[in-house]
Write a structure and sequence with these properties.
Layout (H helix, E strand, L loop, with lengths): L2 E10 L3 H8 L5 H4 L3 E4 L11 E4 L5 E4 L2 E6 L3 E7 L7 E10 L5 E10 L3 H33 L2
Helix pairs in contact: 1-3
Protein name: SRPBCC domain-containing protein
Pfam families: Polyketide_cyc2
InterPro entries: Polyketide_cyclase/dehydratase, START-like_dom_sf
């Protein structure tokens, strides 16, 4: 199997605008994010950026994904590759969906494809998936903490 998809969702007790305000403040990730440690620049659609990631097992990696989609208060999507196309490609996405009760469904996922996917299956379904959960939980805490402080 050369393809694996993972996705994690979390309900955040805040509006999409409040979630986007924290999510899109990429320079502040160093203060709260356990997995996305650093972006060299705010993502711009069609451009590449540099991202420093840390898995829950402690492994760090630097990626240079190309931003495929950036729609304010809705979605950020990028594609990263290991060396050559078709070897190990990942299309990572973050989606914000407003819910009728004024809260936000935050979705983070990735479509993995390539020759190395079967060899990296354990990492994808283990530390990578746990990293998505950790980021989502940390974002929820940060946003809800800011909402509470502004009341």
């Amino acid at each position: 199997m050369r393809k694996i998809d993972i996705e994690k969702q979390i309900n955040i007790n805040a509006t999409v605008e409040q979630v986007w305000q924290v999510f899109s403040d990429f320079k502040a990730y160093t203060e709260w994010s356990p997995t996305i440690l650093f972006l060299t620049a705010a993502p711009q659609q069609g451009e590449s950026t540099t991202v420093l990631l840390q898995q829950p097992d402690g492994k760090k990696m630097t990626m240079h994904p190309k931003v495929l989609q950036l729609v304010e208060m809705k979605e950020l999507r990028w594609r990263g590759r290991l060396l050559l196309p078709g070897l190990f490609d990942g299309e990572h996405y973050f989606i914000l969906k407003p819910l009728p009760n004024g809260t936000t469904l935050f979705i983070q996922g990735e479509h993995f494809d390539g020759l190395l996917v079967p060899l990296l299956r354990k990492m994808i379904l283990g530390p990578t998936q746990r990293g998505f959960e950790a980021f989502n939980q940390a974002l929820k805490r940060k946003v809800e903490e800011q909402v509470t402080m502004s009341l």
